C-alpha cells in the first residue's frame, strides 16, 4: 500500500519565487554538461572530443544529483506541487517546447541519421569493447544515455519521495532492471558471442521476440541458451503475465520492471501532471491502444502462418505489415513521440496511447485482476492533488468523491495518487475479487440518510 503524506498547497501568487544561488549553481553544472556534450558531438578533433564528452557527462551527473539533493533533500517530506502550472519548464512554456524539440530531434537523428552522432559514439568505444567486445554504435550510445537518465533521475525521485517506502523500492526496482537487465546483461551476452537479448522486455512490447525469424535466429545462434530465451519470452508473455497481473495488476510490470515505465517514472516525473484528463483524451486512448495491440497480434499470426508453408502467399503482406509496425509504432510512436513529447503531453504518452503491452495488461487488470485502488469518499476534501499527479489521465478525484474503487485498464498502479492525498483516502490493494466494484460503505450510508 502506498503511504499517504501531506501535500503542500499551491501559493496564490502567480509569480514563482526566484531561484536562489545554490540551486542556480547546480543548474549551471547541468547546463555546462549539456553544452559540453553538444560541443563533443560537433567537434572534429577526436581526442579533444573524448575529453569534452566525459567532462560533459561528469558535469551533468554532478549537477543533477547535487540539484536533486538541494531541491528536495532540504525541504520537508511530502509531494510538493507548487508552481507546476506557472513555470515555463513544466507548463508547456518556452523551456518545455525547446526541451521537446531537442528530445524529438535527438530521436529522429538516432533512428534515421546516426552518422551525425559519430562524435558522440566514438568516446564510448572503450566502454563498448570492455562490456560487449563490439564496436560502439548508435544503440549503445542510446542505451547508455537512457540508463544514465534513469539512474540520475532515479536519484532525484529518491530525494523527492524519500518519505514513501513504496516509491523508494519501486524506483530502486526500475533502476535495477534498466541497468542490469536492459543495459549490462545484453552487453555481456554479446561479449560471450550469444544473441543480444533483453530479459525485461517481451512480446507484445518487444514485438519481434515471437516472430518466426527471431525465434529461428535465437535457437540457431544461441543454441541451448537461445532455446531458453525463446522459452522465457513465451512463458513471460503468455503465462506469467496473466498470473502476475491477476494478483498484482499491471503495476508489477509497468511501474516496477519496464524500461519505458522506468524512464517515465524518473526522467518524466516533472511532467506527470500534463496528462490530459478529458473524456476526449480517454476516447482517443481506447481508439488507439487496442487497435495497435490487435495489429501486432495479427502480424505475429500472419508471419507464423506464412512460415508454416501452408499459406506462402501471406509472406509479403505479413513482412510489409511488420515493417510498417516497426516504423510507425516501434520507432515513431514509442521513441520520437513517446519520449520527445514528455514536456508537452506528459510522461506516459506511449504507455497510455500506444503500448501493446499496456493494452494487454490493461485488459487483464480490468476484467480478471484482484488489484484496485480503494477510496474512502467520506474523508475526501476534493483538493484535486490525486488527479493532478495521475500520469495516465485518470480523474481520480471523481472516484474519490463518490467513494468508488478505481478499476481502470490504464492505471499503472504507480501509487502517486495515494501518496499525494493529504487525508489517506486512496489505498492500493490486491484484495479478493468479491466486492471489487463496490463503493465505500460510508458513501452508501450517507446516501441513505440523504434519501431518507
UniProtKB/TrEMBL annotation:
It comes from the Bacteria. GO terms for cellular component: plasma membrane. Transmembrane segments: none annotated. It holds the Pfam family Fer4_10. GO terms for molecular function: 4 iron, 4 sulfur cluster binding; metal ion binding. Keywords: 4Fe-4S, Electron transport, Iron, Iron-sulfur, Metal-binding, Transport. This is 4Fe-4S binding protein.
Amino acid at each position: 500500500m502506498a503511504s499517504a503524506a501531506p501535500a503542500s498547497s499551491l501559493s496564490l501568487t502567480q509569480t514563482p519565487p526566484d531561484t536562489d544561488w545554490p540551486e542556480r549553481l547546480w543548474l549551471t553544472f547541468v547546463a555546462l554538461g549539456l553544452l559540453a556534450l553538444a560541443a563533443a558531438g560537433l567537434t572534429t578533433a577526436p581526442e579533444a572530443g573524448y575529453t569534452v564528452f566525459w567532462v560533459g557527462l561528469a558535469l551533468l551527473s554532478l549537477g543533477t544529483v547535487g540539484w536533486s539533493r538541494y531541491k528536495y533533500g532540504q525541504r520537508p517530506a511530502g509531494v510538493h506541487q507548487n508552481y507546476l502550472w506557472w513555470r515555463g519548464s513544466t507548463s508547456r512554456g518556452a523551456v518545455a517546447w525547446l526541451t521537446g524539440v531537442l528530445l524529438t530531434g535527438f530521436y529522429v537523428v538516432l533512428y534515421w541519421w546516426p552518422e551525425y552522432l559519430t562524435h558522440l559514439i566514438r568516446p564510448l568505444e572503450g566502454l563498448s569493447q570492455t562490456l560487449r567486445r563490439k564496436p560502439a554504435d548508435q544503440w549503445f550510445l542510446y542505451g547508455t544515455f537512457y540508463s544514465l537518465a534513469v539512474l540520475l533521475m532515479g536519484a532525484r525521485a529518491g530525494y523527492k519521495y524519500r518519505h514513501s517506502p513504496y516509491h523508494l523500492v519501486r524506483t530502486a526496482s526500475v533502476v535495477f532492471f534498466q541497468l542490469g537487465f536492459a543495459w549490462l546483461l545484453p552487453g555481456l551476452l554479446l561479449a560471450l558471442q550469444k544473441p543480444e537479448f533483453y530479459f525485461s522486455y517481451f512480446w507484445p512490447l518487444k514485438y519481434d521476440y515471437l516472430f518466426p525469424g527471431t525465434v529461428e535466429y535465437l535457437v540457431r545462434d544461441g543454441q541451448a541458451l537461445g532455446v531458453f530465451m525463446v522459452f522465457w519470452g513465451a512463458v513471460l508473455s503468455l503465462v506469467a503475465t496473466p498470473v502476475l497481473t491477476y494478483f498484482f495488476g499491471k503495476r508489477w510490470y509497468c511501474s516496477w520492471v519496464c524500461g519505458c515505465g522506468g524512464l517515465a517514472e524518473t526522467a518524466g516525473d516533472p511532467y506527470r501532471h500534463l496528462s490530459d484528463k478529458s473524456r476526449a483524451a480517454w476516447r482517443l486512448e481506447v481508439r488507439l491502444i487496442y487497435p495497435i495491440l490487435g495489429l501486432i497480434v495479427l502480424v505475429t499470426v500472419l508471419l507464423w502462418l506464412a512460415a508454416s508453408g501452408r499459406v506462402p502467399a501471406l509472406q509479403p503482406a505479413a513482412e510489409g505489415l511488420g515493417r510498417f509496425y516497426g516504423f510507425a509504432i516501434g520507432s515513431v510512436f514509442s521513441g520520437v513521440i513517446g519520449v520527445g513529447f514528455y514536456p508537452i503531453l506528459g510522461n506516459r504518452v506511449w504507455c497510455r496511447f500506444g503500448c501493446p503491452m499496456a493494452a494487454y495488461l490493461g485488459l487483464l487488470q480490468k476484467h480478471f485482476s484482484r488489484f484496485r485502488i480503494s477510496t474512502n469518499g467520506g474523508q475526501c476534501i476534493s483538493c484535486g492533488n490525486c488527479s493532478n499527479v495521475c500520469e495516465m489521465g485518470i480523474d481520480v478525484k471523481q472516484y474519490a468523491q463518490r467513494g468508488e474503487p478505481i478499476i481502470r485498464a490504464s492505471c499503472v498502479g504507480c501509487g502517486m495518487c495515494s501518496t499525494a492525498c493529504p487525508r489517506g483516502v486512496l489505498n492500493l490493494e490486491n484484495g479478493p475479487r468479491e466486492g471489487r466494484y463496490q463503493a465505500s460503505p460510508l458513501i452508501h450510508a450517507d446516501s441513505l440518510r440523504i434519501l431518507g
